[in-house]
Amino acid sequence: VEAVYSVLRELCKILRVSKAVTAFYTGLAQERKGEGEVFTAYDSGAETDKALIIRGDLDSTMTGRCMVYHAKGDAPWSEEETARIDTIQRMMLYFVSKNRMKAMLFRATLYDDAGYSNIRKFTYTVDQIGNDQGLSEFCVARIDLKHFSLINQELGRDLSNKVMREYVRQLEEAAGEGGIVSRLGGDNFVMLFRKKNQDQVIRLFEGTPVSFGDTDEGRVMLSAHAGVLVIPDDYYYHEFGDLMDRIINAYNAAKSGSRGDIVFSNDRMLEQKEHAMRIKQIFPVALQNEEILIFYQPKISVSTNTIVGAEALSRWYHNGKLVMPMEFIPVLEQSMDICKLDFYVLDHVCRDIRRWLDEGKPA
């Protein structure tokens, strides 16, 4: 790359080009506003008086310009010089734009529109560290910023974005060597950080004042819900998804507040996740095979000492064993499966009432 630039600079000197500049725009609107990327390939420092400009469409979304300037007081360019300068311009536009487009493609792939690294960048980083040296020196966390929608409403989009960026900067600084903070979307992030920096990171999760103005009044306290996995020393890294599986239950618990705003993942949580997945997998078959049994707990009137009603209770009889409600009801409540159970129970209660009526029993 530097060799090509060196040749271009020498050609500029030979053809009496005082300054050569390329500019790139992602769309006509950006070009009209002059808000593109500008790169000076050569500048002799001499005062200029006019320029030759060529423009080209680099792809369907990107345009480029190359401008070469004539030194003030120099003799005008000849036709031959002008023709050669045109060739240089096209060479510069092609070469520089090719490298610019590579950089833009890299950025578009690994960063989001706001400039935060994305999940692809995070996965790439974790894969590299995990496969090269292992992750025994790291922790991984999934987080979301607490009450950020209220901050957004109070401060407005521009200032709230400034607050988020500053908070993420502090997290990145605390993450340590090899650490990374990537945005999943909105105010949701995933983070890899050094174990030795754990206390510093946790303090930021718990809450820290973040400045958005030039005075002490321009500050807001920002904290996060976080599911954290301290990666075991003997952990063997084989795929990124395994790490996410290990922290999702901790993150959900932190999000719900059932165990506090910061929850550390452990083997018990992984077992609970596997149990929940198993329940969700076999539940449709259980309904189809009518493994859910309905038991009735009578309601007794203390004044008449007679049965005045009953509460329908669900019990799951599976593989010769009775599965108690606490083992499957909380899992079903995490999805619409609980509604399927409600309708199943309602249907069976109605059947029983019909049968009791047909048998002449009070219902």
Percent helix, as a range, is 40-55%
Number of helices: 11
Strand content: 25-35%
Number of strands: 14
Shape: elongated
Characterize the structure shown.
- By secondary structure, this protein is an alpha+beta fold.
- It has eleven helices and 14 strands.
- It has a five-stranded mixed beta sheet, with helices on both faces. Strands 2-1-4-3 form a four-stranded antiparallel beta sheet.
- Strand 8 and strand 9 form a beta hairpin.
Secondary structure elements and pairings:
Layout: H1 2-14, E1 17-25, H2 28-33, E2 37-43, E3 48-57, E4 63-71, H3 79-110, H4 119-132, E5 138-145, H5 148-155, H6 157-175, E6 180-185, E7 188-194, H7 198-206, E8 208-211, E9 219-222, E10 224-230, H8 240-256, E11 262-264, H9 267-288, E12 292-300, E13 307-318, E14 321-323, H10 325-332, H11 337-358
Parallel strand pairs: 10-11
Antiparallel strand pairs: 1-2, 1-4, 3-4, 5-7, 5-10, 6-7, 8-9, 12-13, 13-14
Helix pairs in contact: 5-6, 6-7, 8-9
